[in-house]
Design a protein that fits this description.
This protein is an alpha/beta fold. It is about 40% helix and about 15% strand. The protein has one domain: Ribonuclease H-like superfamily/Ribonuclease H (Nucleotidyltransferase, domain 5), CATH 3.30.420. A 5-stranded mixed sheet has the order 3-2-1-4-5. The radius of gyration is 17 Å and the shape is globular.
């Protein structure tokens, strides 16, 4: 359970609008990288019971993620998304694509932002906002965890929809990540349009 200590400290120091940013899909072999930006004010501190199970999206079940997705959307001032598809990932590399998706997510926010709390060690380029990077922030900071949940649910939906077009890879289950079945199919039938050609094993074929 998150105690939101970082957010409490920032609100106490005069910040009114705090945003958390995180991305999902960096290690996937196929599909986009998706970033989310969640903007909150001090009201968010008052819903402790509803968000008690908030955590890094990889650490909670799909059912709880979907429940929290709705709660986060309901109680946040703004929830926005940035997406970089596989052709851009192959062109500029996954790190730069992740930062670009994060930049788009922040720019798409429909509320003022006083500070951006960013998962990892890299700041988002070309945004004129105060930023603080936190390594493993999705496991420490509630607002970043909220962004990771939004991004995960959104990306999972994309990959489930893509599965109907490329059912042979079972994207609805593996979401593009390198499961044994997925890797086997890549070697048997080759990659499809949404595979990241700059990633192994596609690069080695």
């Amino acid at each position: 359970m998150y105690k939101m200590m970082e957010e409490k400290k920032l609100f106490k120091n005069g910040y009114k609008y705090i945003s958390g940013v995180d991305e999902v899909g960096r290690g996937s072999l196929a599909g986009p990288v998706v970033a989310a930006c969640v903007v909150i004010d001090s009201h968010f501190l008052k819903i402790k019971k509803e968000i008690k199970s908030i955590n890094d999206s990889k650490q909670i079940s799909s059912k709880i993620r979907k429940e929290l997705y709705n709660i986060i959307n309901k109680h946040s001032l703004s929830v926005s998304i940035g997406i970089c598809f596989e052709n851009i990932i192959d062109k500029i590399n996954i790190l730069q694509a992740s930062l670009l998706a994060s930049q788009v997510a922040v720019n798409n926010a429909n509320n003022k932002i006083d500070i951006v709390l960013m998962d990892g060690s890299y700041k988002i380029p070309e945004i004129n906002l105060e930023q603080k990077t936190i390594i493993k922030g999705d496991a420490k900071i509630a607002t970043i965890a909220a962004a990771s949940i939004i991004a995960k649910v959104y990306r999972d939906k994309i990959m489930t929809e893509i599965d109907s077009k490329y059912p042979q890879y079972n994207f609805k289950e593996n979401k593009g990540y390198g499961s044994a079945y997925h890797r086997k199919k890549i070697h048997e039938i080759g990659p499809c349009k949404i595979h990241r050609k700059s990633f192994s094993p596609m690069k080695n074929l």
